[in-house]
Amino acid sequence: MNRQMVLVGFLQAQNCTNLPSSWRHPDSRSDSMSADYYQEIARILESGKLHMAFFDDRLAMPDRYGNDHAHTVEYGIRCVKMDPLIVLTTMGLVTDKLGLGATCSTTYYEPFDVARRFATLDLMSGGRAGWNVVTSLNDGEALNMGRDSHPEHDSRYDKADEFMEVVLGHWDTWEDGALIMDKTSGRFADPSKVKRLDHKGPAYKSRGPFTVPRSDQGHPVIIQAGASGRGQRFAGRWGEVIFTAARNLAGAKEGYVAVRNEAAKAGRDPDQMRLCNLTTPVCAATKAEAEDKMALINKLPLEIDALSLLAEALNYDFASKDLDEPLTTDDLKSMQGILGIRDGVLKNSGKSNPSAHDFVTFSGRGQVHDAMVGGPREIADKLEEMFVERGCDGFVIAATYVPGSYADFVRHIVPELQRRGLFQKEYRGKTLRDNLGLKRPAAGAWKVQPRDAAE
Q1: How far is CA 60 from each of CA 68, 77, 314, rounded to the nearest angstrom?
Q2: From the annotation, which residues make up the binding site?
Q3: Could you report the per-residue pLDDT of 134-174, keeping only the tens digit for each?
Q4: TM segments (predicted)?
């Protein structure tokens, strides 16, 4: 089979999409706190044969700007945040093949808890679950979860490596074929095929035995989105679906090679990874209609949207400086969270000490300046170029209004990609791994190198 794109729907269990102004769009549904809202999205994505619905998540509303949440609530800047796993479960009830991916933090949860939640979703959905591994972003999350401050960037990833060992270790403690379920003999399972983990490490202790058998796909797919150098090493070691956010082909190709090289260094097969670049398509039957849609969308964002989301993502209070005042080197060093945003602004602005206004301009945060606008041919051309030139293996489709953006993409762009032989017309199988073309992992397959050798 010719190489084909992976397509993922990018969602949030909140009052807006990743674009905070999306709730203001006249065509967006206003019932984002209902099951029917998400179930409609699920049906749309599955009708378009997309591989997965994926939920980003945070453990706090954005409140780093001015260290206050008032602006967040007043302007609806991602102020509602529900549990994505529960929302995904409602979506799984109305779909059969669509993958179900959600974010859960290694910094603020216990490995056994995360392992059990996602293994359960995997069984309940017939092998369609994916876990997006994050280390969280900022002090707001820390304060909600009983901590005084958020841990330092690289130390979070060091701890997350051990977290992964515990989760994957628990998922491997039930062997395939462990279940007997013989009513005549009274034997439910073979105890020789169910082990305790007995993990004792620098950060975690977890005994077991684990309480959820393996699913049809072995265990949930591991999703990751590390953008910094340390994040890319983590993604290369663990990630099976990698989310990237390159803004041009050159940057995409550079990142694609970097992450695959990290996977090879960790002893993994880079072809058992799918790198998907975030894109925001604004599409219609014709380019002119799409441009009209974009003109409306451009009227929706407010400057406070970008400032709030930048403060959240970098754990830095941009309200502490005037908008046009250059940030000091110490200011830049103090930033945490998604350091790829900071590094991208430094690179794209060409300034060693950019201002808050430069961060708004060059980060794209809270805005849609990098949207792909056009009819089927124009958008398919752009997606095809990045895919064929090995800038990515697929795309994460972000929405500017809901559910219309997803419906527009499925109606106008998916058929054109299918006509070109770039995207599947039917699902390959039943599980998420089947449909992604990833191998079902054997027990213990993740043990590629000792932790210190992979660093």
Answers
A1: 12, 12, 14
A2: 57, 103, 153, 157, 228
A3: 988 778 888 988 888 888 878 888 899 999 999 999 999 99
A4: none
